[in-house]
Automatic annotation (TrEMBL):
BP term (GO), one: regulation of DNA-templated transcription
UniProt keyword annotation of Transcription regulation present: yes
UniProt subcellular location: Nucleus
Domain of life: Eukaryota
GO cellular component entries: MSL complex; NuA4 histone acetyltransferase complex; nucleus
Organism: Pipistrellus kuhlii
Keywords: Chromatin regulator, Nucleus, Transcription, Transcription regulation
InterPro entries the record matches: MRG, MRG_C_sf, MRG_dom
Protein name: MSL complex subunit 3
Amino acid sequence: MPKLFLHLEKKTPVHSRSSSPVPVTPSKDGSAVFASFEGRRTNEINEVLSWKLVPDSYPPGDQPPPPSYIYGAQHLLRLFVKLPEILGKMAFSEKNLKALLKHFDLFLRFLAEYHDDFFPEAAYVAACEAHYSTKNPRAMY
């Protein structure tokens, strides 16, 4: 039974002269109604929690991992170098362009604020290490 109804103690109807058959306190029969709602809600929550963005077998073991598994925030920032050129070739109204630029600015501020999370020192190697590791590349996390 929901906690909302646990502390109701009145057993008389709200209107003393009312002939309403509905009591103020829920009966044991009424708790079944709430239980069915609760059960349905639990089933719906469990269904949503069982959803997956990608199947368990993704990526297939015989194929290399997709680029999104390899490329990180550094590569995303490289996009911003090309962004003015890309936006220049698109037809945006002034209003839409200002809104888009505002969102880009907020996103870049977010990356700057949390740069330690997205760009950890461990993700970088010295140039000489990178040169020697081209023969035996490894993923860096």
